[in-house]
Amino acid sequence: MSGTIRFAPSPTGFLHEGHLLSALYVWAAAKKWDLKIHLRIEDHDQGRARKEYIDSIYEDLAWLGFRYDSESIQSSHFDFFQRILEKLDEKGLVYPCTCSRKQLIAENPRSETGEVIYQGKCRTQPHPCSEPHSLRIAIPDKVIDWHDERLGDFNESPKFQCGDFPIRDRDGFWTYQFAVCIDDIAQGITHIVRGEDILPSTARQILLSEMISDACDASKILPAYRRPLYLHHPLIVDSTGKKLSKREHAHSIRQDKDQGVSPEQLLGRVLYKAKMLSEDTPISLERAIALVAEKL
Ligand SMILES: [Zn+2]
Questions:
Q1: What separation in Å is there between the alpha carbon of 132 and the centre of ligand 1?
Q2: Is pLDDT above 60 for 1?
């Protein structure tokens, strides 16, 4: 085995066709590059994660026949996230932001994608802070050059994409960006294959991973950071070319299963919608993975 790839769903809903396509890409990449597969349940958002969704991830993957080499769930190591936060804090890289959502929208410019580009208003805020606040990471003005195996080269500056971003939200929950960076380093992830919708997060995740790695270097609580290989796969789109929303993915895998759809029928349908099969016809998991691997 030459590395590790992860499949990392959030248990904030039932898995749907979009997740299934992503899983096929991950398992195909593992086949192509001879990688171990790690299943990571990303339940960092404890306000939205639910046990029934966690259970259904395991059940749905088993029903479809996906096997993996190891697994983890983020909530089992939140205390570790806290230790990393303290390391960053010791370096003066974390600050409380008391801006409300309304203020954030009113007071900051937006990127082309509509994202707020936080201008650092609270950078000088006293710490600790008694008001409700998120914790933001003070990022440097740095251009990140990175490569996507499918889409080519990018050079992006998180400072101008989003500015200092939260690593813990106002409810005290760890953010996706923070949790994913720590876990990818701690779990030795060498390959990241995920949907194109996560593309804008990549530069900031590389930057944050470098910052985490620098801050933890002396303490050796994390392995050395090596930037993983990235591949962002196309999404299932509707007839106008728009990404399907959670609601538009008509059925969850669970609903299909309950209605008597077989795993092979579901796999065939997803590959047909992803334009990798010319007709909607049943296909085995093994053949589905091989077919996607050919596209990598
Ligand atoms: Zn603020």
A1: 11
A2: no
Q: In what order do the strands lie in the sheet with 144-148?
A: 70-73, 36-41, 4-7, 191-195, 229-233, 144-148, 152-156
Q: Could you tell me the distance, in angstroms and rounded to a whole number, from the CA of residue 170 to the centre of ligand 1?
A: 11
Ligand 1 centre and the CA of 106: distance in Å? 12
Question: How far apart are the CA of 178 and the centre of ligand 1, in A?
Answer: 18
Q: What are phi and psi of 227, to 5 degrees?
A: -60, 130
23 CA from centroid of ligand 1 (Å): 37
pLDDT at 246: 61
- Could you tell me the distance, in angstroms and rounded to a whole number, from the CA of residue 158 to the centre of ligand 1? 17
What's the CA-to-centroid distance between 122 and ligand 1, angstroms? 4
Q: What share of the chain is helix, strand, coil (3-state, %, to 5)?
A: 40, 20, 40
Interval 99-155: pLDDT, tens:
999 999 999 999 988 999 999 999 998 888 899 999 999 999 999 999 999 999 999
Percent of the chain's residues with pLDDT above 90: 89
What is the Cα 102 distance to its own chain's centre?
A: 26
Which pLDDT score, from 0 to 100, does residue 240 have?
A: 74
CA of 169 to the centre of ligand 1 (A): 12
Query: Which residues are found with C-beta within 5 Å of the ion, ligand 1?
Result: 97, 99, 121-122
Q: Does the pLDDT of residue 77 top 70, yes or no?
A: yes
* Mean pLDDT value across the chain: 95
- Cα 173 to middle of ligand 1, angstroms: 17
Q: State the amino acid at position 249 in one-letter form.
A: H
CATH number for 268: 3.40.50.620
Spatial neighbors of 35 by CB under 8 A, at least 6 apart, are 1, 2, 3, 4, 5, 29, 190, 191
Looking at the 3D structure of the chain, how many domains does it have?
A: 1
Q: pTM for this structure?
A: 0.95
Domain with 267, as residue range(s), is: 4-295
Ligand 1 centre and the CA of 121: distance in Å? 5
